[in-house]
Structure formats: structure tokens, C-alpha cells
Amino acid sequence: MPESKVISLDERAKDEGKPFLEQLLQEGARKLLQAAIENEVIDYIQFHKDRRDEDGQRLVVRNGHLPEREIVSGVGPIRVRQPRVRHRDKGRFSSAILPKYMRRTPSVDALIPALYLKGISTGDFTEALEAILGEGASGLSATNIVRLKAGWEADYKAWSQRDLASKALRLLVGRRRLLQCPARRGTNLRAGLDRSD
């Protein structure tokens, strides 16, 4: 039997390694994200510096770091350590840059449906994303893809069943586009021709 000349995406990614430029971009993105998160916490604590309890202690203080976590981005996985903020008054700090449960950047979230629409099966997503984003593209198993797909289907179902009674729509025949016109009371939805041209 002849030897197969097909190379899996995993083997190719391991053989090529990361070029210096990709390593440089990934490290630069990590440093930039880490600095932005640190500055956000510094600004937050500075904003609350005058809040004190009866003993004169600050109510909002920095308290070490949260465990390091990995964010899957367009330049590959980025490991960051988010500073921990302690509220002594039952308050809570929530980062606008790096929300608590964020594991993927929005660009990666947009990539997933695009790959699905191109015909990548749910079982092949992990391999395809590792080839695109690098070996650290974790958290994107077939189970997660199926869960995302169910969410997309629910969003589509809600969108397709929305009520259009409050909007008058007019189809311009021959132009192949749909125009949306404001609804008037007592008017019915009906198709018409645009004879203004």
C-alpha cells in the first residue's frame, strides 16, 4: 500500500513552529494587554482613594493578582495576570478591558461562525482553529461549538419571528432591494412600485 502524503494540520503546525514575527506580535500584544489591565486597576483604585471606613482604612485596595489565564486572540493565545481588587464595602470591580469570563477576543468569536458557514464540521473546529491561532487555541471543543450553534439558531428564530406590523415595508420591483418606510396609522402593508425614476 502506498504511503500517504497527506499531512495533518497538527503535524504542520508543530513542524513549522512560530516564526519570529508571530512571536514578537504575540509578546507585544501580551505586554500591551497586561499594561492596559494594570492601568485600569490603578485608575479605579485612584478614583476610590478617598473612600474610607471608620478606622480610616481605604475601602478599595489592590490585593495581589488573580490566577493567570489564557485569552485566545487573533495572534494566538495570550497569557495574562489580572490584578485583584478588594472591596471592603461589598462592592465589586469589573474590568471593562478583560471581563471576568472572557476567554476569546471578539475577532475569534466572529471567526467561529465564519468557519461553520464555510462547512467546517464541529469535530474539526479544534484542529482548524489550532492551525489558524496556534496550539493554545483551547476551550473550543466540539461541545462548545455545538452550544454556540444552538445559540445562533435561537437568535435566528427570534429574529425571523419578530413582529413587522409596526413597520411599513415596500419592495421596489426591478431594483432587488428592500426599503423600510415609517408606518402610518391605518395603512396596510403592501407591495408597490417605485415610479419616481
Strand content: 15-25%
Count the helices. How many? 5
Radius of gyration: 26 Å
Low-confidence stretches: 187-197
Distance from N terminus to C terminus (CA atoms, Å) equals: 69 Å
Q: What structural class do helix, strand and pairing data support? A: alpha+beta
Largest sheet: 2 strands, antiparallel
**CA-based shape:** flat
Task: State the helical fraction.
Answer: 25-40%
In round numbers, the mean pLDDT is 75
Order the strands across the largest sheet as they lie in space.
Answer: 1-4
Number of strands: 6
H and E order = HHEEEEHHHEE
Task: Describe the protein in words.
By secondary structure, the protein is α+β, with helices and mostly antiparallel strands. The protein is 39% helix and 17% strand. The chain contains 5 helices and 6 strands; from the N terminus they run ααββββαααββ. The chain has helices at 9-16, 20-47, 106-117, 125-133, 142-160; strands at 60-65, 69-73, 76-80, 83-87, 167-172, 177-182. It has a two-stranded antiparallel sheet with strand order 1-4. A two-stranded antiparallel ribbon has the order 2-3. Strands 5-6 form a two-stranded antiparallel sheet. Helix 1 (9-16) packs parallel to helix 4 (125-133). Residues 187-197 have low confidence and may be disordered.
